[in-house]
Amino acid sequence: LALYFHIGEREEKCIIEDIPSDTLVVGNHKVQRWDLHMRDFLESAPGLGMFVTVTSPTSEVLLSKLYGPQGTFTFTSYISGEHIICFQSNSTRFAVIAGSKLRIHLDIRVGEHFLDESGIQAKDKVNEVNIRLENLIEQIHHVTREQEYEREREEKFRKTSEETNSNILWWAIVQTLILISVGIWQIKSLRDFFISKKLV
């Protein structure tokens, strides 16, 4: 996931990532501040940092840390579900005068393990093959976890759909019985009325 978004200097912005359990998440961010004179976003925002907060689906805080204008944050998901990742600048200005617009560049990689190329080049060929093999095995484990998570979600969705269909069927049967009962009652009431008025 690579994107950028605009926020106010004192504003908090959150995104939601659906992450399988036991998955490493690596995020890179860069902050740019709008410059009124140049009418553009500056490449760096000195002294301006970002609070990054990550909350699990059970509302447990997995990460809460202040980073600089550029930084890398990592966390590991312990349970499957929607994790909330929030960003807020460390500006100390009052909300009335903190009118600067910020652009946040964000790159989030879920479950990826990147090889340290410098470390690989420094070792012999056997170690290089071992490191690459371990990396491939980790990626296979990650793909397996993601597939299991998707299967769980699909099964949950199927159960919900079946329960909904069953409820709709029973509601239709109940409605039909109510309509038949009301119809029989109306016919009986009309018949009694006509008999009492000696119209039949």
From TrEMBL:
Stored InterPro entries: Emp24-like (IPR015720), GOLD_dom (IPR009038)
Residues spanning the signal sequence: none
Transmembrane residue ranges: 168-187
SMART domains: EMP24_GP25L
Annotated localization: Endoplasmic reticulum membrane; Membrane
Keyword set, alphabetical order: Endoplasmic reticulum, Membrane, Signal, Transmembrane, Transmembrane helix
Topology term for the membrane: Single-pass type I membrane protein
GO cellular component: endoplasmic reticulum membrane
Domain GOLD: 12-110
PROSITE patterns listed in its UniProt record: GOLD
PANTHER family given in the database record: TRANSMEMBRANE EMP24 DOMAIN-CONTAINING PROTEIN
Family listed: Belongs to the EMP24/GP25L family.
Name of this chain's protein: TMD11 protein
Gene source species: Molothrus ater (Brown-headed cowbird)
Gene name of this polypeptide: Tmed11
